[in-house]
Structure formats: structure tokens, C-alpha cells
Amino acid sequence: MGTPTNNQLCDIGFIGLGVMGKNLALNLADNGYKIACFDLDKDKVADAIAQDKAENPDGEPRLMACSSYTELLNMLTKPHLIMLSVPAGEPVDHVCHRLIDAGIRPDDIVIDTGNSLWTDSVEREAQYKGKFIFFSTAVSGGEQGARFGPSLMPSGDPYAWTRIEPVFEAIAAKVDPQTGRPIEDYAPGKPVKEGEPCATYIGSVGAGHYVKMVHNGIEYADMQLICEAYQILREGLGLQPKEIAAIFREWNEGCLNSYLIGISAEVLEEDDQETGKPLVDVIMDRAGQKGTGLWTAVSALQVGSPATTITQAVFSRALSSFKQERVDASKVLTKPEPATFSNSDHKQVIEALRDALYCSKICAYAQGFQLMDIASKEHGWSLDFAGIAKIWRAGCIIRAVFLQSIANAYENNDGLKNLLLDPFFVEQIGKFQHNWRRTVADAIMMGIPCSAMASALNYYDSYRCETLPANLLQGQRDFFGAHTFSRIDQPVAKKYHVEWSKPGRPQYQIKC
Ligand code: 6PG
Q1: Nearest CA to ligand 1 atom 7
Q2: Which of 23, 95, 129, 248 could make an SS bond with 146 (beta carbons 3.0 to 4.6 A apart)?
Q3: Domain-embedded: residue 1
Q4: Which residue, of 182, 205, 228, is where some domain finishes?
Q5: CB 289 near ligand 1, within 6 Å
Q6: Model pTM?
Q7: What's the CA dihedral at 208, 25, 141, 114 to 10 degrees?
Q8: b/e for 15-53, b at 16 or more Cβ within 10 A?
Q9: pLDDT, mean over the chain
Q10: Which residues 6+ apart lie within 8 Å of 170 measured at CB?
């Protein structure tokens, strides 16, 4: 292909035309940008071009195929704006190196939109400094979000952001400012123009991917909680999938309204085409995971943030993967005598379960925001939690009506230590906690696993406990390891030790 003239040049280069990449490219095209596309797999580029043609039969082509990195750079206006949608890890560096070989310049911007580990983004910005500007943007929303409006978590060079901002505001999901709910009135070629865009600058490079990582940790917890509610309804009340779907649909009208509840109902309504059984009954009960939930749990452990429900959700996926062992164990390990709910009124049980799910969900989100707060302080990000809650109201997988309540909580008090302390959530948990406790207790007595729900309740009970048995624990540590302890009636920094093994020991020795 010859050198394109100015009016043939493309606005944005797109590398990686898998499902997410193709849909993001088409979303950009719907918003008036001309896109130069490259993928090592030529078929993927051809597929994206064909879809553009099918969706836009009478117009000028909006997606242009490139067969090399050099051709991609030559087809772009300067300075170049390039988006990557390639698998996280080594493929991102591979593409960055090929772009350097192809002659990318210091003022060109490369935006990584994959599910990258946030520390990799930090390293990449430093590694590619002087060659091009590496900018990280986490994207949530799956295929549909990418196509019609994802939630975007951009982070990196503030100069680069001034260039990227209008593009991202155009392609992001939009929220109705009156209702706080997603505007979902879109179609190919008809992007939503009005409303508040779900894209806000998160902070220096890596911050966006950190926030997305926590989003995914919350996503794991939210999904696990819904699955536990399903199992309680299925095994505890003996309901059929379609009956449970109807309950979820009803819950979706109230405070539990969320994308995840909606799609859970859809999955439960589906029959298997081959056997005619409910599809959920033929899906193997082994959960997969790509790693972002694990990263969140690891980060929580590293910074000492008690994200117990999030971490439990990762463990629950791990436990599910021991399918054959569970099958074998089910034949050996005993369970409680068949029991029913202590309350035999189904309506009340379902209502209590809804409340348990809601309270557990509040705790999972409280843990996610607590983790981000600790990380923000540790890395000097000054994260804006109201802003983060707002961009999660639409487009992303955890979009839910109650994210507006979270945004309100941080707008009312930007120094809020924990979501649980916000007056609205204090009132909500106060109102529903009896049902939460009842549900968890019943599930435990019936032998139905509810580890995420129980962990959320334990998080709540531990967080509100003035005195925890960590005093005894400190005594144990001092006993066997001379690890010292602080006294409640002295400054915390003053450390005490007991000479436990000395007969007739003086009670305390001050260590430091
Ligand atoms: C999103 C999702 C998405 C998720 C993948 C894999 O926000 O769009 O969180 O990014 O990472 O769907 O998730 P698993 O770890 O469950 O495989």
C-alpha cells in the first residue's frame, strides 16, 4: 500500500482484534474515529473489517487493515495514538518492542487495555520512557461493554490523558445523572452520546489496573455470593432453577438490582438443547479463573487488608476444581440429617436470604474499597472513591444500583474509613442483619456451604468488635517467641515482655 494522503490517515491504531479488541475498535468507529487495525492473525483483522462493512454497508470503511506494525504507524496521524488489546503479560511487551522496531516516537502514546498486572504497567512506563508514552487503561464490561460502552479506568501520564480523555468519554458507558442508572439505549452505529461517561482519570500509571483488579476481586465475591444464594434455594428449599430465576428477577427490582443478578436469572432459565434439562445442571461445577481475583487476594494479604470475602471467593473457586475428590468425599464424609429451614415459611426464608445476600454484598464492597484505600495511601495515588463508584455504575460487570449509594457515601465524607460506617449502610445492615444471621445459621446447620456469606458476616462482626481475642494471641506470641506486646493503658509503641519460663519472674520487663 502506498503512503496515505492526510485525509486517508487514521485517528487511532488498534493492535489485537480478538473479541474485546474488535468490539472496542467498532465502538471507536461508531464514535467517529477512523481505525487502523493490526493483528498477527490476519483472519481477526478480516473479521473486524467484515463486521464494520456489515454494520455500515453504505458508508466509507471505518476500519482499515494493516499487515505490519510499520504500515500501522504510517497510516496514523501524528503523534500516534495506539490501543492494545492483547493478552496480559509477555504479549504486551512483544508488541511494544515491535512498535519500537517499526519506528514509534517519544511523543506517541500506547494504551494497554488488557487485564495487565498493575505492577507490570508501572515497570512498562519506566521501561519505555523516551521511546513512547506507555499509558495503562483497564476495561470492564466484557464483549458487550467493549462494543457499546465499557467502564474505563485510565491511568498514566497526565499529558497523555488530555489527548485520550475525549476519546474515552465518547466510547464509555453512560449513566443517567437523574437516576444513576445505565443508559442502555444503544445499537450499532448509534452510540449513547448523553449522560455521565464511565471513564475517569484514576491516577499515575498502574493505578487504573489496580482499581480494575479490585473490581474483579469484588466481582468474584459478588458472583460467589449469588451462587451461594442459589445453592441455598436449590438444596435448602428444593426449588428448581426456573423458580430460582424468578426469585432473582424479583430481587433485581430492588436493592440487589445488578447486572450479575440479571445474568444469573438468564442462566437459570436456560435449558440444555441436547438433554432438555436445565442448562445449569449439565454445566460442570468447576470454576475457572484467569487470575485477577487471585491478584486481589494476594495484594490484600500483602498490605494487610482484611478482604476476607473476596479471598474466600477465590478459595471457593479453587475448592470447586477438586471435582473428583469432592465426588469421592461425598460418599465418605457425613452430613447433617436432612433438615429444612428453621422457618418453614418459604416466603420468609426467601426474604431473609435476600437480606443476607444484600448485607454480604455490602461487606464485599466495603472490603474492596478498604483495600483500595490502603493501597492508595501506600502508593500515593489519592484515589477518588466517589469517582470510582460512579464509573462502576454502568458498563462494568459489577454494575449495580447500589453503587450510587457507595458514591453518595464517599461524596458525603471523602475521609470515610470504611463503607460500613456510612450512615446509610449502618442503617441498612442494622435493619437486615437478623435475617443475615438466621440465613447463615440455617445454611450451616443444613450443611449447605455458604463460605462467602459467612465470611462477610464474620468480617462485619470482627470489624464492629471493640475487643478481639488478639490480646490472647499476643500473649501466646510473647510466650513462645518473646515477640512482646503493647498494653492498653500505655502508649502503643511501648513494648512489654514476660519472662514466662523464669520461676518467680518479675511480671513485666519493658523491652523498648
Ligand atoms: C470485566 C471482567 C473481565 C474478567 C474476565 C475473566 O470486568 O470485564 O472482570 O475482565 O477478568 O471475564 O474473569 P475470570 O477470572 O473469572 O476468568
Answers
A1: 140
A2: 23
A3: no
A4: 205
A5: yes
A6: 0.95
A7: -40
A8: bbbbebbbbbbbbbbbbebbbbbbbeeeebbebbbebbe
A9: 95
A10: 31, 32, 191, 197
Lookup result for grid cell 512506563: 125
Tens of pLDDT, residues 140-192: 999 999 999 999 999 999 999 999 999 999 999 999 999 999 998 888 989 99
Residues 98, 127, single domain; the answer is yes
Taking CA atoms only, the protein residue closest to ligand 1 atom 6 is 290
pLDDT, tens digit, 9 for 90 and up, residues 288-313:
999 999 999 999 999 999 999 999 99
- Catalytic residue ranges: 212, 219
- Lay out the sheet containing 63-65: strands in order across: 63-65, 35-38, 12-15, 81-84, 109-112, 133-140, 151-155
Residue 1's pLDDT band (boundaries 50, 70, 90)? Answer: very low
Specify the 3-state DSSP secondary structure of 37: strand
Residue-by-residue DSSP string for 440-500: HHHHHHHT---HHHHHHHHHHHHHT-SS-THHHHHHHHHHHH---B--TTS-TT--EE--T
- Band of pLDDT at residue 342, cut at 50, 70 and 90: low
Regarding whether 151 and 97 lie in a shared domain, the answer is yes
Nearest CA to ligand 1 atom 12: 142
User: How many separate domains does the chain show?
Assistant: 3
Residue 92's domain spans which residues? 6-205
| Whether the CB of 23 sits within 6 Å of ligand 1 | no
116 in contact with ligand 1, CB cutoff 6 A: no
Q: Could you tell me if 268 and 187 lie in one domain?
A: no
Same structural domain, 191 and 273: no
